[in-house]
Input
Amino acid sequence: MDSYLRAREMHLQINSILKTVVLSLLIFTWFSMAHPFYLSVCDLKYNSASKKLEGTVKVFCNDLEDALKRLEQKPVDLIHSINKSETIKLLNTYLKNRLQLKENGKGIPYELLGYEIEEESLWIYIESQTCTPPKSLNIENSILYDFLKEQMNIINLEIAGVKKSWKLNFPEKQVLFEF
Output
């Protein structure tokens, strides 16, 4: 019976890894094609050495610029930013209002470390304060929900080598990951 359970567990782990690989390939393909849909990808991983959640948020630059222009009611140019520190402040405010990480109802604070442009995409780098490896993590992600009702937000999370993924479609904005 133990060997059956081990085999079943191994099968589930392999299945999970394959799903992550296929999902990553789909995401890569989507980001490299023309832009007929609205998507963001949030990748988070717990780093046991630094005891922090580290991650990236990838969005289409033009979609985020459009949202920021509407919210700020002024022109926003992320690609040709004149004042990078002001842009980081703007992105930090936007992200913290739309991406929350919670364990047992308590927020896990994080900082925006920086960003970079890659073709039509914007990569935002984030890092939490020191924390223990979460046993469960509630993630609320409403990035670009302000003006894009077709928005999809994919969340990939890895803790202690266990990878999990979830896709949120507007208006769904919360997912609970348990480890």
In short: The mean pLDDT is 87. Strands lie at 39-47, 52-60, 99-103, 106-107, 110-118, 121-128, 136-141, 152-159, 162-169, 174-178.
